[in-house]
Amino acid sequence: MLHPIVIRPILTLGVLLSLCCSGPVSAADPAKSKPISSGNAPASDQQVLPIEQGQRIAAVGNCLAERMNLFGNFETRLQLRQVDRDIRFRNFGWPADEVGNRQRPNNYTVIDDPLKVFSPNLFLCFYGFNESFAGDDAKSVDAFIADYRKWIAELKKTYSSAGEATRFVLVSPVAFESEWTDDPLHNRLHPDADKRNASLAIYRDAIKKLAAEDGHRFVDLLDDTSTKFNQEQGLQFTINGAHLNEAGDELMGELLDQALFGTDALSDEETDRFQRVRTWVNDKSWLHLQDYRMLNGWYVYGGRRTWDTETFPTEYRKIRAMVDVRDQYIWDLAAGREVADEPDDSGTGSVVVPPTMFGTRDENFRKWREPEELVYPTPEESISMMKVPEDFRVELFASEIDFPELANPNQIAFDAKGRLWVSCMPNYPQWQPGAQRPSDRLLILEDTDGDGRADKTTTFYDKLICPTGFEFVNGGVLVVDEPRILFLKDTDGDDHADEVVQLIDGIATGDTHHAMGSWELSPGGLLYMLEGIAISTSVETPWGPFRNRDRGGVYVFDPITMRFRHFVTPGYGNPWCMVFDEWGQGIVGDGTNAKQHWATPLSGQEVTTRKTLEPVFDNEGMRPAVGNEF
After folding, report:
1. 125 vs 159: CA distance, rounded Å
2. 527: nearest Cα among 519, 535, 536, 539
């Protein structure tokens, strides 16, 4: 299907591009955080954690666990240390998780529960960071410990195999890395690392006491990361003070490895294999992510009009078989056995490809919803069918005919050079297991000869999945990569992304076309992102967890402070378009009931009802209405 047109009115239309002017994170002579002290003996001074043959290890907890999926340093060390133990390691970390609050998409475990299917017999538990924002008083800490005990009991009873011994390793939070500088304004806009670390130390001590009382292994990451973080100024090991970057994950992998298995260094032979093993550890983690956090979950888990009950169970089985294949491949690599260039998925089974429903329902249904036959008009034919106001006309700027990579375009924006950027998502609504890895992309389209038509396209980045929104910020681009938001930056001027940072994790993916999209920067540099109803967002920020579910509306994100807020929009709850006028007032439109409302009165203290304002424009239910502009 062609997606060919960009509308260009003859009337003068100014495109205002507001760039967030956040400076570099680090600066000269930032204040260092105060060191923290508790004590954490390496495994050489304790008992080395025994690993059984065929051990099934699950990481559970918050983003400290979940971000291990990105880098794989600890599991790589684990596999190289425990050669021929045939360890199966799975990461079930989830952004904003707490021991007493684990928000999941609707109908998440209706088909099956991936954690229960895996049935771990060793849990690595990463909690305490999100809970620390509840307060440092004894009542809050006692409630955390009580909830922790309940969660451990539930993990043992519900998620482990009957009759099998289950062990738990309780891991403390890492330190909060100081971002403070000589600029007082900058400091007021970011958390105080000393206060954060004092709070984290209280929760670390509580976890240590719990482990001692209940007979669990404890690992203190707070002390050693605090010492390391304070050796240099600025953000070295985290992306925002709270969440580890690749260097931070490497540090945590080393510290966790030493605390559990001793201080012996990897041999030269193991070091040579490290990166190759890590490549396939990360590949396995990505596949597993498509299982326990599968996109389009509202449909997958049976919650929304899922007539097809065969497809998704076969997709689960396919993914899990592919993950099993990588287990064996990693074991062979770690042991130094000869392997093929890549794992062989030929024996992992097939998936059901359901037939189209077009033309299969009764005539009354088809009369109002389907054409008699599917015809894809050319760009020129599409333009000829349009009715536009007087003094307007529609011209073709770019077409999938000329640029095949321009498939399934979703959002557009003009950069400071006047070039048109387009997010395209041919993999919508989700990845099919066994297919090529997703290649959804950001394109740059240019008219280099001034004839009003694009004649050049450049792929800025093409490793995305369902990029429902993007915006220019701080010399780069923020873009959706469900379930994450990435920051991409071209550092050498070749119009290709060189810097890739997984900045935010946990945006809702229960209905991928309802995910945070239709992005719009306000004149003040705040990013407005629209999300539909009946899906679940749980993001983790330096200021604590931020959760929302089943309330369609608008998120307001400050790219400098990293704070989130949200407000509910009127009507059905499926906002799909937003624009600001010259006075900075927003108008937001609902794609389902096609009504447009002023956003400014809605964007203060959030209310729960959607019956708040009369529309400024009412399309009387003629859906869909998915765009607006002044």
Report:
1. 14
2. 519
Confidence of residue 20 (pLDDT cuts 50, 70, 90): very low
Distances (CA, A) of 427 to 69, 317, 400, 465, 614: 22, 20, 16, 7, 37
Beta bridge partners of 481: 484
Q: Which two tokens stand for residue 312?
A: 């998704």
Q: Which two tokens stand for residue 382?
A: 């599409």
Residue 475 is predicted with a pLDDT of: 95
Interatomic CA distance for residues 501 and 195, integer angstroms: 26
Q: Which among 277, 178, 190 has a CA at the least distance from the CA of 234?
A: 178
Q: Cβ distance 613 to 595 under 8 Å?
A: no
- Report percent pLDDT > 70 for the chain: 91
DSSP 242: S
Dump pLDDT digits (tens) for 297-356.
Answer: 888 877 776 656 778 888 999 999 999 999 999 999 999 999 999 999 999 999 988 888
Widest CA span in the chain: 82
- In three-state form (DSSP H/G/I as H, E/B as E, the rest C), the secondary structure along 59-88 is EEECHHHHCHHHHCHHHHHHHHHCCCCCCE
* d(C-alpha 207, C-alpha 204), whole Å: 5
Please name which of 181, 165, 161, 149 lies closest in space to residue 22, comparing C-alpha atoms.
181
CA pair distance 488, 191, nearest whole angstrom: 24
Query: Measuring CA to CA, which residue among 443, 420, 492 is closest to residue 17?
Result: 420
CA distance 335 to 270: 9
Q: b or e along 442-465 (b: 16 or more beta carbons within 10 Å of the residue's beta carbon)?
A: bbbbbbeeeeeebeebeebbeebb
User: What share of the chain has pLDDT > 90, as a percent?
Assistant: 71
**Residue 164, class by beta-carbon neighbours within 10 Å (0-12 exposed, 13-18 middle, 19+ buried)?**
exposed
Q: How far is CA 321 from the centre of its chain?
A: 24
Token pair belonging to 334 = 């770690």
Binned at pLDDT 50, 70 and 90, residue 9 comes out as very low
Strands 167-171 and 217-219: parallel
For strands 484-489 and 499-505, give the pairing: antiparallel
Phi-psi region of 259 (alpha: psi -120 to 50; beta: other; left: phi over 0): alpha
pTM surpassing 0.85?
yes
What span, in angstroms and rounded, lies between the C-alpha atoms of 383 and 8?
A: 12
Q: Residues with Cβ < 8 Å from 1, sequence gap 6 or more?
A: 376
The length of the chain in residues reads: 630
